[in-house]
Each structure stands twice: as C-alpha cells, then as structure tokens.
C-alpha cells in the first residue's frame, strides 16, 4: 500500500536535447529508457530550466559571470528545437485497493507532453497554471514506474535587438509567460527563455475521495473581537460508488515543542456521487478574540494550523489538506488627504515602505532556503511590502509562506507590462497575449493557488499598463469583493447575520482583496496611468525631503544605485571587469562616469548625473582602486537609501501613504538597484533602509535640518527624550543637547527642534551627528541614528585623512554552535576617552552608551537587552547564559590605538578560514544575517551585533571586522 499524501519528485532526473534522442515518449517509458547520465543524457535540474541543466553540466558557461552570456546561443538564433528537451525519471508507487494517484506539475514553461509507462498526456500551454493527471490505471503492478516529459519553449521567444531594450522585441508578450527573459535595463536576455519544468513535480496518493483547493476566509465583527472562519472546498469522488464522507475541520495553534492546542473542531457529513466533483461549504467557525496576523513592524505574525480531512465510510481516511492561516483583514482605499493608496490591516493604517521584486534567480533556481533568506532580508530591512512586478513571476507558495512568517505584505501583479503590451520600440501589441482565454485560465488558477496566504494583500492587472478590456473586466469579475470586504469603514451598516447567509465569502474566487487595474492607476503614481513613477538614478540626498521631489501620494517605483562590495565584483567578473569607472570632468563642472564594458553589460548605474547631481563618490575623494571605489560606494548607498525612506516618512500621511523602491535585489549579478547582490551579500544600502524604516525612528530632515521623530506604530510614547550630539574629527563633542519629556503621538511625525550647529561660526567642515531616542525611566534606546555630514557646498574629502586614525576598540564575542548553524554575539565598544564636558550628565551618558538591542533573529532567544556600558559584567553574564551551550567562553579582542574619535563605518564579514587562496577567490560564507552592519561608534559607546549563518561541511568560519579607520580586517572569531 502506497503512503498517503504527496511525494515530491525532485531528484534522479535526466535530460537530453530532443533532436539528439531519436526516440519517442512511449519508447522512453517502456523498452528504451535512458541507462543513466551518458550522452546525450545528462543530470537534470528539476525543478529548473534547460539552461540551468546545461550550466550544471558545464556545457555552457555561467551566464551570470562576466560576459559569458554572450557566448551562449540565443533561442532566436538557434531555433526553438535547440532548447526543446526531454526530462526523464523513475518513481516508486504501488497502490492497493481504492487508492488513487495523481501526477502533478505545479508549473512548466511553456508546453509539453507527458509519458507514464507508455501512456501519453498533454501539458497545455501557459507558464502559470497547474497540471494534474490521474495515473492510477497506468501504474505498473510492481510499483516501478517511468516518467518522461517533453518540454517545448514559449511559442514566441522573440529576438534581441542589438540595442537591447525592455523586453527585447516584445514578442514574448504574445505568450502567457514571464516577460523579463528577453532582457531589460536591469537584466540581460535569458537564452532559453526559461524553458523547463520550473516548479514542483509530485505525485499524490489518496483514497476514493480527494480534497481540492480549499478556500479560507476570515470575517470580523465587534472591532475584531468576534471572528468567523469560512471554508469552502471541492470533493472529487474517483470511485464508481456513492461516497458517504465525514468531513473534518480542525484549527490548532502550536505550543511548546511539538505540542499543539485545538482551537476548533467540527465534523460534517457529505455524500458525493460516483465520478463527480461537488463543492461544500462548512458552517462558519466562531472564534473569540483570536490572535491576529500583523505586518512586519506592527505586531506578531500569528498563524493557526488549519487541517481538513475526509473519511469515507468503509474505507477510512481518504485525503487530508493543511495550511497555516492568519486571521487578518486587509483594506485599501484612496486617501483623500494625499490621493495615495492607503492600506489598513486589522483597522490600523500602515505606512508602506517596501520594495519591488522580480524573482530570486533569473534561471529559476528557486528553493525554500533561498526564499527564506530573501524574505528574511526584507523583514530585516524593516520593510512591510513586496511588489511582485508584472514582468516576473506569479510567485510560488514557498515565497508566500515566508512572507506569511515574516510579515511582508505582497502586491501580486499579473503578466502584463507596458513595454511588452502596448508601447516600446518597436511598439508592442497593446492587446496583451494572443490567447486571452489562456491568460484568464492562468490567472484563475494562480488566484486559487495563492489566496489562502495572509500576506497576499493586493491583485494588480499589470505593470505600467492595464490588461486589455476583456481581460481587465474578467479579472474584476473574478476578484469582486464580498460585501463584508467592500467598505473601508466599520461594519455598522451590515447585518451581523451575514456570515450565516448562503453567500459565504469563501465561495468567492477570492472576495477579500481589492483588484487594481494597473500599477499607476487608482491611488498609485498620479492615479491616471501616466508615467509618474521613478526616478531611477542617483539623487542629492536632501532632495528626497523637498516639496517638489515627488508630487503624488504613493510611488510604486523609485530607484537608484547599488554597487556591491569589491569581493562580489571579483567573484562575478574576470580581472578586466575589476577596473573602476573613469571620472571625466565636463565643461559644466559635473563629472561623467565612464564604466568598463563588463560593468555596462551588468547594467551599472553611475553615482553621478551630470547637470543635476555631482558625483557622490568623488565627494570622498578620488577612488584609487576597486576596493576604494566600492567602499566609498557603500557610504553613498547608505546615505542614498536612508534619505529616500526618511524623506518619505517625513511626509507620512500629509503628502505620502507609501513608497516601493525599485528594486530590492537582482535576479542575476547586476550592478544597480539592490540591497543585497545575487550572491546574497548585503550592500550598505540594506542597513540604511533598516535604520530608516524602523517603526519608531529619530531622523534629521536633510532639507530643513529639523530633528524629527517618526512614529508609525499605534502606540503613543511618553516620557521619552531625544539626545543629539555632534562629534568632530578630533574626537571632541562641540554640541550636546537632550530634549526631554516628549510626547510622541501614534501614526505621526513630531518635530523636535532645528539642528543649528551648521550655522554656527565654529562649525567644522565635516562632522558626525548621533541621534538617540530613549526612555527616560530606564535609558533604553528606542531608536539610534548616526550621520556623517558636511557644511553646505562642501564635501567629505577630510574623511580621507580620517582613515589614519587609530581608534581603540574592545570586541567581546560569544558563539553558539548547533550543527552547521552558528549564532555569534559581538559586543563592540569604542575605547576612546570621552570628552569631559559638563553637559554630559550621568543620565545622558547612559543613553549615549546604551547597546543596540534589536533582536534580528526569531530563532535566537534571550538576546542581550540594551545595557549601559558601565554594566559590562552584567552584560557578559547574560551573553554567557544565552550561549551556554557554546564550546568556549567569551573571547575578547582589543585593537591598539592611541587616537580618540569616532570608529567610523565598521562592518563584519564571515569567511572560510583559509591560509592560501587565489586572487579573486571568494572566501566569504553567505548568506549571513546581521542585526546591524556598517555602523559607527562615538567615544565610549558600545553596541551589540548578532550574527547568524550556516557553515558548509568541513569549513571553519572566520569572522572579521573592517572599518574606515579600523584596518587589517581583524579576526574576531
């Protein structure tokens, strides 16, 4: 008897080019199966693509390295047959009486044929649809089965014009497929257009009755104290007799360990005719004050386990289904004050700060591990929304699972972009894909696949374009709201008995989320579809705060630079790509950056915009080499993106309701618009965003020089104070002030004072500003923000000589090792002598010395809390308790230095400990999660940094600390 449930078929696959096999699918799955990975057969990547398989077998070079992609034959030149491939595997499945088995493809690209033990099935066209085949009657009695799949590329792969362009020649827009594959201004073309079995393949074994696509919906009454869970599903009876079923619904919550608590349990009797599929709706399940699911920064992401089982009389359990579910209500309307789209979650307005997303990997090398890192990175940046751009994917359930866990709201677009569906050069087809019915079939199936995820917040017709009228109207109909979800106000006008009526909200295809026809309509950009998103280039940081920077309430795309660290450049390019741009002075006084051809190919955006923005790297002096250029670029990345988000937050609710940055990452080794690179190494912009987007944040308005506190939370803060201190390059503190007894209302920006130091006669040309918001009662730091600033019209060139400073540090480290996972806690203190100023009272020094306490990792419990530096013994004892299972005690490293001053722009990195390595070899261990990085410490100040990473087998990690004036990459661990 086969085991009930799903078995994923993700190993043991072989692949071969169709033209090199010379056999049909019947032969391959009966008398002539491949013997193994011998020509023309090779080990295959499934899920994955043809190009991914060719790269794995080293038959083509890595297309993400240097100019390698130019050496790979494009489908426009090779013809579709070149990338038409067979995929083959075997699987075990031996059934007993009344068991049934389905073969499932969650997605393929673009069409194909399936053969199981000599029997043929058709994989119909469309990249975003599921395929399920009942193979019960064609399995071998001995349980040994053969599966061959022939995959055809998209029908209209298109050609790549010599000048490139958005979506190439736009032909891919005629198919229902991802459009980025013909290249964009941030992406090179994908040569096989992502042909392959790119998503999960599985078999599912059930009894005579199968559960299909349950739909879960929660409705709320009495200010979220009275909640109902609505559930509708389909039951398919695969037998030839009437199935008398007991249908069970269980809702539980996880407690300690493997213990769970059942919150609700009900059983219903259902009769299903032979060979039929019936829809069944459970009576609404009542909950009193359940734990709600909140977005990142607003509360916990509470999830309940919803399980459904069907028992058939005379058989027993026939099928089961389970899904984590979050009770939450998402609303969005056009805000009258700003004209921007205003989102509410559980009745609370949420100021949107997030990013645009294409996909994890351009070759569709998607995995749970990668998805978790991607989404956790976004949560670490304090983002609360991800927009899945219309030229990319309908994202996978694993993506949504981690968005559920980490609290990222998702804006999901369908597969329309203006570039491929109505404009461009040449002008593309405005009528969308050729087959509108296929588009709608894929859309409907995508809705059913994703609708149970609490993170899914919004459906949008397309990017910078609306779908054709018939598709748009059909999507509106599919996604019409149930009456319970139509009002943005309280439900006072609706009957409390509505939950018990036959029009149950779970009977809708979705019914709970608003549908917007395009990314620049109805509260986004100017709301009318005109091109009012962007800009996408380097900006003067102070401009983000000015009235005329962006005129509309919600910007769905604003982008900028994103050069990674030098190690990534060396790891992804040959030495000729390590040449930094030439800086060419123009007659108007601005600098033009001229980059090398490899950087151009990887879509580099300069750090200057001649005529508008002076080169932001040159502000720090001439870049000497790649290391110097990239380090200065990180300084700019930090300032650029912190200013962007702080500028938007400064006008929260008065001018803006949200902003999405273009983009958070690159699906390949690109050199623009990213907070972490394709190798998963963060840029300093990552930490600039993390700082600026914290829920309660103290900041400097770079246009007015007012100190402000942004409170995006629902709580009022009282008895808090803001500490402002200025530090010069000599380690002195010429300005220090504490603004006490503040009252910070919820959802408001509070003006504290103007920072007048730059207007004083004694102001230094370059100086540091440290802002801290803290509780007066216990000196706990709520928000910390560090700036490096120059006087108007100046630059940062004095920081070049500041590199020679030797600022003493004391770093205490403790490690906990569990299997391959390392959790490291670093306590870093600037040991410089503090200035003896009368203005530095004991209370204020406690605030100045408070350690950073942000807990960056949900899996790290008991992280050290904010602790004054004069309580080091207490801190270290707590560290020892947290890491009590560690093999070693605390390790202390002290760096020599007789200078006093700011320890500037320090960052940790993790490497494999190797005595000898080749030039350009990347020894970094990635990914790494840091509670903070690219941080600075004033004299006497301390900070705790938490670090978490996994180490490959047989590798010993080495944690190093680098800094602007901290040299030699000191090994701390």
Could you explain the architecture of this structure?
There is one protein chain. The protein is globular. Helix 7 packs parallel to helix 8 (469-478). The two termini are 53 Å apart. By secondary structure, the chain is α+β, with helices and mostly antiparallel strands. The strands form eleven sheets. A seven-stranded parallel beta sheet has the order 26-25-24-23-22-30-27, with helices on one face. Strands 3-2-4-9-6-7 form a six-stranded antiparallel beta sheet. It has a five-stranded antiparallel beta sheet with strand order 40-38-39-44-42, with helices on one face.
Give the count of helical stretches: 15
The share of residues in extended strands comes to 25-35%
| Coarse structural class | alpha+beta
List unreliable stretches of 5+ residues. 489-502, 838-886
- Which bin fits the share of residues in helices? 10-25%
E-strand count: 46
Strand order of the largest sheet: 26-25-24-23-22-30-27
For the termini, the CA-CA separation is: 53 Å
CA gyration radius, whole angstroms: 29 Å
Give the overall form: globular
Biggest sheet features: 7 strands, parallel
The residue-averaged pLDDT reads: 92
GO molecular function, one term: hydrolase activity, hydrolyzing O-glycosyl compounds
Pfam families: Glyco_hydro_2, Glyco_hydro_2_C, Glyco_hydro_2_N2, Ig_GlcNase, Mannosidase_ig
Family: Belongs to the glycosyl hydrolase 2 family.
Keywords: Glycosidase, Hydrolase
